[in-house]
Amino acid sequence: MRRMDVLTQLAPDLWVATRPLRLVVGDIGTRMTVVRLTDGGLFLHSPVQPDPETRQALNAIGSVRCVVAPSKVHHFFAGHWLAAYPGARLFGAPGLPEKRKDLAFHAVLDDHPPPDWQGTLEQHLFRGAPALNEVVFFHPRSRTLMLTDLAFNMVRPPRGRARLFCWLVGAGRRFGPHLFPRLAMRDRGAARESLRRILDWDFDRVTVTHGEVLETGGRQRMAEAFAFLGA
Question: Which fold would CATH assign to domain 8-226?
Fold first, then answer.
């Protein structure tokens, strides 16, 4: 998979778009995962900036219907997508409507898929880390788990300040949670129960927002990466 493809297909009805994300800590990169629903509509997970090339590529495969801000941290470009696609619905993690009062949310995410993607995707609100409130998604057809910040997969270290950031927080050259998500897990018992819930899904691939897609072995790698939560 070339890093800067406009849209890269991973499986039937599943694509990713990988883009730069320049923050104070440097360019750590970001990734949007796209799922085509049974009605032909598109589900955008952690959307990247809607530049003309990205919009053209998406329009070629379906209609943008659901814009999903899956955590309290990943919401940067949600408003841009609503402006570009006024008919789309915005879904956000718990706490986001209070944080982004400028956005009109259709619904707040929980453990139950709304009718928009029921039967195509499953989901779970990761408990015990209220600073993140990340909602994890599972695409059974492609056996793909969709993460946001719970795990990075920086197998190729970024450049500049971002390389130093990854080293400082322990995100370099491995799959798993770095220092900040670990610290966010204030209730280890609740987090452990969420991990068990996630590991009940039969997934192999894992898409992450930062780093490389983990194409295979995802369930085992997920269990190993979160072993610090205990049995």
Answer: Metallo-beta-lactamase; Chain A (3.60.15)
